Structures are given as structure tokens and as C-alpha cells.
Amino acid sequence: MTTMTWVGLDVHARSVEAAALDSLSGELRRARFDGRVEPVVEWLAGLPAPVRACYEAGPTGYGLCRAARAAGVEMAVIAPSKTPRAAGDRIKSDRKDAELLVRLLSAGALAPVAVPPPALEAARDLARAREQLRVDLMAARHRVSKLLLRHGRVWERSSGTWTQAHRRWLARQRFEQPATELAFTDALAAIDGLLARKAVLEEHLARVAHQADLWPVVARLRCLRGIDTFSALVLHLEVGEWNRFARAPQLAAWLGLAPALRQSGESAVSGPITKTGSRRARRILVEAAKHCDRPPRIGVTLANRQQGQPDHVLQTAWRAQQRLFCVHQRLRHRGKPANVVTVAMARELACFAWALARA
């Protein structure tokens, strides 16, 4: 079907700038709306059909895209990082951005992102709330430890910090100055509050993970060493639709685990990983890869997670352990730094996760 009208939208919280290009006459129309979705969708529906429209992904979310699709308008959400822009262009405005989008869309030069279903996006919001809470908890713990360090209080035992024994040691700390005592008590209370919130979120996330539309993939991902329920759930929610990646290396590249490349003429230089895509999924894979530097084995915990899974899933998970251990040994013997080895293992782990999710 030939597209009659191409539309580029520059969407903000309080304004939407639109540029529509007629494919027959080449006429460029412009329109400006407030931040509401309804006027934009009504204007799109009144253009010569069929209409193809797009706007860049951002904090405004996918509401406009879903409303346009419900009205029969083909709408795409574009990855801003992959929008071509002239290096010498020093003038930026909403009108120019909308015109740039419509011309690139008609030329097929834009890369769309996957628009998740509302239920998947809601579960992703909850998982990201727990991820942010984890960051806040780590920062709160650092504040307590640094306050103690300034006063010469150091946990001397060989056991790790933030255990029950360490928490009892913290409760016994006293300071001469009342202001310092109050600051320390407030910092401990902040940690206790964050831990309580974390427990509530994890309880709700456990129910989300066992939903019928999520649990089959989560259960298969849990068969990998280093990936338990929450890690598998976050990984599944961040990737979304696994079938949109035809090959496993495409997923690894989308996660930003592929090395950058600069090629010109006869020279080609590889750089650090691109770090594109979901940083949350990438962090989970890197942390899980650190568990795979040991010889392959199936312990009691992993055996319980793998219980009830079909043989081809278990065989893939076992091959993952063998492959990652070989990658670790080979790269370490070549003298590669530990972080380079871990990222290489995470890239391999992403490929095995792709195979299990599509099993």
C-alpha cells in the first residue's frame, strides 16, 4: 500500500509540532498543538490516507502512539540515538525537528523502537522501581559507612557488612556530639525504610513473575547460572519481544555488549562496548557472568530452579556453563583484564538467554 501522507511529530509535555508531507504533490503542511493527545490524533485521521507518522522516544511515553494506532493511523516511535543529523547544523527548533523526522521517515532512514503492551510496560515500571530502590539503598549504606569512617569506626570482622551481626554492631554505636548521633540515627532509619519498601516491591514482583504470560520465559531464563527470578524477570521485561531479534548477536548488540568499530579504508579499530540499549539488562548479564568463571556444575539451588524444564532447555543451560567457562579460561590465559573477560562472558550469556527465551 502506497503511503499518501508522511508525518513527523516533535512531541513535548505541553506542545506538539507536526509536519506532514504529501507524497504526490510534495507539499509540506505544518501544525502545532498543545500537549493533549486527542487533537493530534484527530488531525492525523483527517489527512489523506494511508498515513504513516512517527515521533522520537522520550519522557512522553507511548500514549500518543497507542492512541493513533487505535484510530487506524500507522505510528512508529523512533530511537533518538539513531536519527541522522548534520554535523554542521547549529540551529535546532521544534519546527526543524518535525521536518527532519518527516523527510527521514519518507526516506526510510529511521530506526523504530518496540512499543510494549500496556501490561508489560506496567510490570516494567514496577521492576524499575525496585532497581531504583536498590540504587538508593546502596547510596544510603555508603552514607552510613562514610560517616562511621570519619569517626574512626571500622567493622573489623571478616564477615561481610550489612549482615545481622553488622546491623547489631551499628545499633551499639554512640557519639559524643548529639548532632552526630541524630544524623547517624536518621541515616539508619532511612536504610530500614528502604529495606521495608524493597521487601514490599519484591513481594509484588514475585506475583508478577508468576503471571501466565511472563512465567514460561522467566522459568527458562532461571535455568542459567547466576540468574534467579528477579534477574530473569527484569531481563525479560527490558527485552520485551525476544522474537524481534532474528539472531542472538543482534540481541547482544542491542544490549550494548558489542565492541564499537571505527573502520576507514584499510584500517579497522575496535573500541569499548557501545553501552546502548537497556543498561539494567546489561548490568544483570554482567553480574550473572561473574558467577560463570567457575567450572561447570549443577548445585542444589540451580537444580531446584531447573526442575520441571524440558531436556532441550537443560541442555542449552549446560552448554552455556561450558561455553562461558571456556571463554573465561581462554581470555584469562591470554592476559586480558578481568573486566574485559566478564563483558565477553556477558555477551555470550546474552546469546544463550536469547536461545532459551525462544525455546
Could you describe the 3D structure shown?
It is built from 13 helices and 7 strands. The chain has 359 residues and is an alpha/beta fold. It has 3 domains: 103 residues, ATPase, nucleotide binding domain (Nucleotidyltransferase, domain 5, 2-Layer Sandwich), CATH 3.30.420; 92 residues, no CATH class; 142 residues, no CATH class. The strands form 2 sheets. The chain has a 5-stranded mixed sheet. The protein has a two-stranded antiparallel ribbon with strand order 6-7. Helix 7 crosses helix 8 and helix 12 runs antiparallel to helix 13. The radius of gyration is 25 Å and the shape is globular.
Topology:
Blueprint: E1 5-11, E2 15-22, E3 28-34, H1 38-45, E4 51-56, H2 63-70, E5 74-78, H3 94-107, H4 118-150, H5 164-171, H6 178-209, H7 215-221, H8 229-239, H9 248-254, E6 259-264, E7 267-273, H10 279-289, H11 300-306, H12 311-333, H13 338-357
Parallel strand pairs: 1-4, 4-5
Antiparallel strand pairs: 1-2, 2-3, 6-7
Helix pairs in contact: 4-6, 4-8, 7-8, 8-10, 9-13, 10-13, 12-13
